[in-house]
Specification:
Blueprint: E1 8-12, E2 15-21, E3 40-42, E4 47-51, E5 57-58, E6 63-64, E7 68-74, H1 82-94, E8 98-104, H2 111-120, H3 123-126, E9 131-133, H4 142-149, E10 153-157, H5 164-171, E11 188-189, E12 198-200, E13 206-208, H6 224-229, H7 254-260, H8 266-284
The chain binds guanosine-5'-diphosphate and zinc ion.
Residues 240, 245, 247, 250, 253-255 line the site of zinc ion (ZN).
C-alpha cells in the first residue's frame, strides 16, 4: 500500500493530520493494517492509536467501510447486460457492501422500454435493493440520488460508456481531494493514499473513483454453500428435502419450487446455476 513514506492522513473536523501508525497496530507483512476508509482514533501527538472495526474490506482497491456500491448501467447505448449486473451484485454481497442500481440515459427510452426494464429489475425490490432510473443529460432523478448518497461513502461499478464519470462529476465537489485528505469526523478520521481517490460530495459523503469496482471476476467463493449464501432470495425458502441441497437436480427442492411458482426470479436462478457450474469446474474441482 502506498502510505506516502509511512504517513497516514487523517481528517478530523476540518483539519488533516499527518499521522504515524502506533507500533502495536502494525502486523508484520500485512498491507491491511490501516487502509483507506478506516475510521481511526488519533492521539495528541498524531499517532493512530485505534482502528475501529470495519464493516467491510475490499482488497483491490484496498479500501474499508464502503457504504454503497452503485452498480450502474445505461437503459440504452449500451443496453443493460443483466448477467453482468448479477455478477456485480454477487461481488457486492461477497464484500458485504450494500448495492444500489442506477440505470442512466433514460432520456433515450420510450415508455414501453422503461416498463420492460422496471419489470426485469423487479426482483431487486424483494432483495431490498434500491434502483434509480435517471438521466444525467436531462437531469432526471439526480436530486433524489444525491439525497440518497449524502453522507455515505460510495463506490461505482459498471461497464464503460454508461455515464459513470458523468454522474460522478455531477455529484462531487468542484474540488477533487488530493492524496492524503480525508473525511470529516470528530476525533476520528478516514485516510487516503494515492491508490484510491476519495472525492468529497457537495452535501457530505464520499465517492470512490477507482475502476476496480467494475471488475466482473468471480470473487473467491470457497464452496457451494458459500455461493448459496450470496443469493439472499434463497434464504428461508421453506424446506428442501436434503439439508445440503444444492438446488440443482435434487427432488423436493424448495428453491426450485419457488422458481416454478414465480417467487424467485427465474433469471436469477439461472444465473446461480451458471456460476455454480463455472466455479465447480474452474475452481472447486481443480485439485480433486
Ligand atoms: P463511463 O465510461 O461510464 O464513465 O461513461 P461517460 O461518463 O464517459 O459517458 C459515456 C457517454 O454517455 C458520454 O458520451 C456521455 O455524454 C453520455 N451520457 C452520459 N449520461 C447520459 C445521459 O443521461 N443520457 C444520454 N443520452 N447520454 C449520456
Ligand atoms: Zn433445494
Amino acid at each position: 500500500m502506498n502510505k506516502i513514506q509511512g504517513f497516514y492522513y487523517v481528517k478530523c473536523e476540518d483539519n488533516v493530520y499527518e499521522c504515524k501508525l502506533r507500533g502495536i497496530l502494525k502486523r508484520k507483512e500485512s498491507k491491511d493494517n490501516c487502509v483507506v476508509g478506516d475510521i481511526v482514533e488519533i492521539s495528541e501527538d498524531s499517532s493512530i492509536i485505534n482502528i475501529y472495526e470495519r464493516k467491510n474490506l475490499v482488497e483491490r482497491p484496498l479500501v474499508a467501510n464502503i457504504d454503497y456500491l452503485v452498480i450502474q448501467f445505461a437503459g440504452k447505448d449500451p443496453d443493460i447486460d443483466y448477467e453482468r449486473l448479477n455478477i456485480l451484485l454477487l461481488r457486492s454481497f461477497f464484500y458485504k457492501i450494500k448495492p444500489i442500481v442506477i440505470i442512466n440515459k433514460i432520456d433515450l427510452l420510450n415508455n414501453e422500454e422503461l416498463d420492460e426494464i422496471r419489470e426485469r429489475l423487479d426482483f431487486l425490490k424483494k432483495l431490498d435493493i434500491k434502483y434509480f432510473l435517471i438521466s444525467q443529460k436531462k437531469n432526471i432523478g439526480i436530486d433524489e440520488l444525491k439525497l440518497f448518497l449524502k453522507d455515505n461513502t460510495t463506490a461505482f461499478g459498471g461497464p464503460s460508456g454508461v455515464g459513470k464519470s458523468s454522474i460522478i462529476n455531477l455529484l462531487q465537489n468542484e474540488k477533487k481531494l488530493e492524496t492524503g485528505e480525508t473525511s470529516k469526523r470528530l476525533r476520528r478520521g478516514k485516510h487516503t493514499t494515492k491508490d484510491t481517490n476519495l472525492l468529497e460530495l457537495v452535501g457530505g459523503g464520499y465517492i470512490i473513483d477507482t475502476p476496480g469496482f467494475s471488475s466482473v471476476e468471480l470473487p473467491d467463493i470457497k464452496d457451494a454453500q458459500e455461493l448459496i449464501a450470496l443469493f439472499p432470495e434463497f434464504e428461508n425458502r421453506g424446506t428442501c428435502k436434503f439439508n445440503n441441497c444444492l438446488h440443482l437436480n435434487e427432488p423436493s427442492c424448495g428453491i426450485k419450487n419457488a422458481v416454478d411458482s414465480g417467487d424467485i426470479n427465474k433469471e436469477r436462478y439461472e444465473f446461480y446455476k451458471k456460476v455454480y457450474d463455472k466455479l465447480k469446474y474452474e475452481r472447486w474441482n481443480r485439485y480433486e
